[in-house]
Amino acid sequence: MLYQIKQYLKFLKTSTNQHGVHSPFVFDLVTKCLYNKTIYPDYHKITSYKKQLKHSKQKLQITDLGAGSQKFKSNIRSVSDIAKHVSISTKHAKLLYRLTTYLKPNTILELGTSLGVATQALSLANPEAKITTIEGCPEISKFSKAQFDKRLLGNINVKTGDFSEVIPNLTPTTFDLIFFDGNHTKEATLTYFEMLLPKANNNSVFIFDDIHWSKGMAEAWNTIKNHPSVTVSIDTFFWGIIFFRKEQAKEHFVIRV
After folding, report:
1. How far, in Å, CA of 67 to CA of 182, rounded?
2. Are 174 and 146 in contact (CB under 8 A)?
3. Angle, CA 244 vertex, CA 32 and CA 43 arms, to 5°
4. Which residues, given as ranges, of the chain have pLDDT below 70?
5. How far apart are CA 182 and CA 114, in angstroms?
6. Distance, CA of 204 to CA of 239 (rounded, Å)
7. pTM for this one?
8. Residue 16 DSSP label
């Protein structure tokens, strides 16, 4: 926690808003998407689902293939506790919704389904998109799939297993949006990034969660944003967002959201 506080203070010193952005593409993204204050009707569904999860008494047997939890010691966890401490926040789910609405990706990949809050936001934002989501824990995967079926979110394909084993067998040749929200370790993040680079197209966006969660994740983010294939990178502190637009000059932005 102390590391994250120090990183956030550094972030505040270097970050800016739309007034410090001179790239037309990034300026539009910030003003029309990141800072978009529209109250979309689908926000109610996102909020309602998160609230339902927080009141659930159901318990799940957790198989943790990632970096492990800083909140839990037991592998038997209630859905409500996962929703409160691990699942994506409502604020960030709404931001993911706006990004999907703005960028209009047709093929989406999510690494780390968890309870499906982010997956639902992706689906609601573009019901026509083909969404593949991978979850390492069988119990969580089964739970989330049942929630998608219950809400008639038919454009979501849930896959269960270790990311490194599932990724090579993915069928879409490219993904327009990939949300990395699973194994929060430096080694795994860089491995999945390299594995999925061939599936990026010129307009793809990769979103990395918790880039300042640990020293290792900060190092992974630094490697990713400096990769030759990456032209635009945006650090929002909680997310790292990258683009591969060849027509864009390579530039890094630190934006308060």
Report:
1. 9
2. no
3. 35
4. 65-74
5. 8
6. 16
7. 0.93
8. B
